Structures are given as structure tokens and as C-alpha cells.
Amino acid sequence: MIVSFLGTKGGTGTTMLAVNSAADIRRITHRPTIVVDLKIGPGDVALFLGLRTRHTVLSVIDQLSWMDPAAVSRYIGEHDCGLHVLAAGDEYGRPAAKDVEGIEQMLKCLNALYDYVIIDAGNTLTACTATALQLSDRVMLVANPDVPCLRNLQRLIDAIKLAGVVGERLKIVLNRASEFGVLSTAQIEKVLGLNIDYCVGSDYRTVASAVNSGVPVSTLKSSELHAQLDAIARTLAGPKHTSGTHRAATPASDDDPIDSAARHHL
Ligand SMILES: Nc1ncnc2c1ncn2[C@@H]1O[C@H](COP(=O)(O)OP(=O)(O)O)[C@@H](O)[C@H]1O
Ligand SMILES: [Mg+2]
After folding, report:
1. In this structure, are residues 41 and 88 in contact, taking their beta carbons and an 8 Å threshold?
2. Which of 202, 204, 184, 207 is nearest to 259 (CA)?
3. Residue from 204, 206, 224 to probe ligand 1 pocket by mutation (most atoms less than 8 Å from CB)
4. 205 touches 217 (CB < 8 A)
């Protein structure tokens, strides 16, 4: 199974969600799981896990065409939690349009080697990202509850649908849903006419301490954030591991004054 996380803009928590979903899927299923950093330029996936890897996505793309696909494992790092990691290269501007074929070949190869391939697709829809999304069984769009982010969300959904990703494959994750208090989830759903599939609250302390220690959130003391991330991982891991996790849709109230302001901006 391939799952891609794509941010509606920088800083929405795409890397945090990709890394922790991957680590939780590995913890829950004990199946071979890899997180791949497809962000253009230097990415943060390896950093979030406190790893320094010698090889990157770019080494794989550049060498896969002539090497034995099974040799890809030599290019992959491993975290203590058992999660495998393919870090981003530090070349600015790559993966670029010329890498589309390499990305496709690499993802197909990883999909054959791993039960779960989790992709941090960054926050720009490029030819390479579109290729990854097309190969994905799930595309998780990550937004925050602020007007610029939600405006991008609407446009991004249209662009992704044009790229051929439609229906049940596309899911929306509202990260830091508890933080700003300006727009509630119900208001957002009403204004955008969309269903938010997952909500993750804001917990800067827990996220920062996980990143500072280079570990997934699940290894720290239990938190609401961990329970929410665990729930997302269980739905991605499949029916055997699901535990009643999708958020219950809460209808927005009709007479909310914030609605008209939000509608105006969006
Ligand atoms: N749910 C959350 N609560 C608190 N802080 C968060 C949350 N999600 C992400 N962050 C923080 O926000 C910043 C951006 O997150 P990151 O995953 O790097 O975003 P992106 O990959 O979309 O640019 C990081 O400092 C991260 O620690
Ligand atoms: Mg990131």
C-alpha cells in the first residue's frame, strides 16, 4: 500500500504526520514499512527521526535503472523503532521533471519490497508529486484551520482530481485543529462543502520533544496527540487494525457569524 501526505502549504505538519503515521503503522502491524521523503530539495524526514543517511532518494533514482532492484535496500536507513527511511537528497530543485520516470520506477520497486510505503510529498504539486499521488492508494491532504491554507486546499483538490486522484483515495487531514479557534471544523466543512476525514489537535510540546529526541511521538508518554495519530495509522493499516477512528461529522450551526466572513475570504 502506498500512502502520500501532501501539504496545502509549508509548515502545515505534513512531515510530522507522514513520519508518525509510518512509525505507528510499523508499531501496530510489525510489517515492513518505509517512509520516503519526496520533498524537493533538502527534506526533514530523516531529521525528525534523528537519522543521518548516506544515501537518498536521488541516489536511488540515479542508479536504479542499471542496478538490481533488490539492491535498493542498501540505500535505506533504519530507525530503532524498525521503520525504514529513504531520505531526501540535498540538491535544490530535485526531484525535478526529468526524475518522473525514476520516481515511478523507485516507488514500484519499494511497493514490491514493503507492505506500507509512506510518502512525505512536501507541499508543492509538481510532475514528480503527481506521479507519486497517482501511484498512491491514499492521498492525505494536510491543512491547518486558517484561511490561506483552506483557500489552497480547495484549489489543490481541483488540481489533484485533474491529475486523476478521485473519490475514496483522497482524504483531508486538519492538523492543529484545536489551535487557532478562529474556524471550527464544522464551519470549515460547511464553508468548503467538504468532509474533513481526520482532525489532529495542536501539541507543540510533544511534537518538539519527539523531533528533538529523533523519535516518533508514540515513544513519548501517552498524549491526546498520540491517540489521534494512532487512530489515523490504524485506518491506513487496514480493517484488521481499525478501531472506530474516523471523526464523527459535527454539523455546523446555521447562525454562526464566522461563516459569512470565512465564506467571503474563501
Ligand atoms: N499537531 C501539531 N501540534 C503542534 N506542532 C506541530 C503539529 N504538527 C506540526 N507541528 C510543528 O509545526 C512545524 C511544521 O511541521 P512540519 O511537519 O515540518 O510541516 P511541513 O512538513 O508541512 O512543512 C514543526 O515545527 C512541527 O514541530
Ligand atoms: Mg516537511
Report:
1. yes
2. 184
3. 204
4. no
Q: Is the pTM of this model over 0.70?
A: yes
Which cell goes with 38? 519526496
Q: Parallel, antiparallel, or unpaired: how do β-strands 77-78 and 84-86 relate?
A: antiparallel
Distance from the alpha carbon of residue 175 to the mean position of ligand 1, in angstroms: 9
CATH T-level assignment (fold) for domain 2-265: Rossmann fold (3.40.50)
Q: What is the pLDDT of residues 239-260, one digit of tens each?
A: 888 765 445 333 333 344 445 5
Q: Which residues of 74-83 are buried (b: 16+ CB within 10 A; e: fewer)?
A: ebbbebebeb
CB-based pocket (< 6 A), ligand 1: 7, 10-16, 44, 123, 175-176, 200, 202-204, 207-208, 211
CA 223–ligand 2 middle distance (angstroms): 22
**pLDDT tens digits for 65-81?**
788 888 898 999 999 99
At residue 105, what is the residue type?
Answer: Q
Separation between Cα atoms, residue 34 and residue 148, nearest integer Å: 32
Closest C-alpha to ligand 1, atom 1? 202
Q: Where are the domains of the chain?
A: 2-265
Closest by CA to 184, choosing from 120, 230, 253, is 253
Question: 3-class DSSP state for residue 103?
Answer: helix
